Amino acid sequence: MLQQTTDFALLRRIATAQAESRAPSLVAAVVRDGVVVWTGARGKVDGQAPTNDTQYRIGSITKTFIAVLVMRLRDEGLLDLNDPLDKHLQGTSFGEVTIAQLLSHTAGLTSESPGQWWERAVGDDWTALQNSLTQNALRHRSGARFHYTNVGYGVLGELVARVRGTSWLKALETEILAPLGMTRTTPQPEAPAALGWAVHPFADVLLNEPTPDAGAMAPAGQLWSTVHDLARWVRFIGGDTGDVLHPDTVAEMRTPVHVDDNDAWTMGYGLGFEAMRIGGRRLSGHSGSMPGFLASALIDWRTGTGALTMANSTGGVPVVALSHDLINLVEELEPALPVEWEPMAEADPELLSLTGLWHWGPTPYLLRLLPEGWLRLAPVSGVGRQSRFRPEGRDTWTGLDGYYAGETLVLHRDADGAPSHFDLATFVFTREPYGTPDAIPGGVDETGWRTRE
Fold this sequence. Notes:
Layout: H1 4-21, E1 25-32, E2 35-43, E3 56-57, H2 62-75, H3 99-103, H4 126-132, H5 150-164, H6 168-180, E4 197-199, E5 206-208, E6 224-225, H7 227-237, H8 247-254, E7 258-259, E8 267-269, E9 274-278, E10 281-290, E11 293-300, E12 305-311, H9 319-333, H10 349-352, E13 356-360, E14 363-369, E15 375-379, E16 387-393, E17 396-399, E18 408-413, E19 419-424, E20 427-430
Antiparallel strand pairs: 1-2, 1-12, 3-6, 4-5, 7-8, 8-9, 9-10, 10-11, 11-12, 13-14, 13-20, 14-15, 15-16, 16-17, 17-18, 18-19, 19-20
Helix pairs in contact: 1-9, 2-5, 2-6
Pfam families: Beta-lactamase (PF00144), DUF7586 (PF24491)
InterPro entries: AmpC-like, Beta-lactam-related, Beta-lactam/transpept-like, DUF7586
Organism: Actinokineospora alba
């Protein structure tokens, strides 16, 4: 649990936001190292303070659940992210766009469905949505830029349904909500639930907002959730995935595919998750809005501290900034202790013998042995290309991050079986600068190193 001073600082922050934003009610929570360490609430729902079990509509945070369902299909080999939509969902006028482009809002698809304002109107079925998109559905060349599209996630919801042979809601319940124990995340409100309100801009009066079923557009923003359930989802985004998805896949989803402001990016988008840089902190998650509701679920996955905020107001409540501030307060008032160092449980002597200096041409690199046979290769200077590598078999590793993500590191041996050199995406690393001449492309000058030109 947090100290009393931290608890009060967090409470004061949400109290200030609720009062200044005139939110009918507001709830929030902080997650740290897989545990909910603080929750808070201000305002009233049905005359009472909202609880951790009060439902709020979470809007576009729904998209993160759809994205996870799609990534599960990818990991099961049922589709590839580079597949064109037509391979799995025929009949659209934009079948050439890829699944990855739809996930990352780079398909160029129109932002909203044609016709009535979908967030306030009763939605129609997939056939009606598809028929409404026969002309001018693509507003930009696919892959050219980031263009947020609610329609794209309606399409992805139907894609999940086609590949699974069931509704996206049934897939969501079976594959995500039930395994994670998120019993209070539903497509329709279930009491206790907050009503959605618009607050008059010039008077302290309220107007009830409609919350219709969005039909085929529901995958873009239909769901309702609670502090308890959404805190579990924040943990999921940070890598605490249970058996729902491999943490490496979630890390892939968090990685920005495109950024919305190229000069000094503060907002980007991965494969279903928003990526933010606020005050030097990198956050992943998503925000959401529907008439009457605002929500935010963010985590600094490097520190394990995350926060969520939900309010039943159409506008004016800075939920993203508020979630960020809650994370910052905890990190500043109670900085986490470094993880206690301890030796590895076991180390393969053969791998241990590979550690130390290797050279790419004349540039020295350090190879370190990590737990479970992983390796880390980085320049001695600390400046330049560096990556971690996961073992794929004897003498073969796959890059996990940095410049060499996805590339293969191969250890070559001489005729006697002794380590000779590493080959990393055609770059050769040798024990001595330009050592093992036979392995160096272009050969090595036979006169060797000289004292002058």
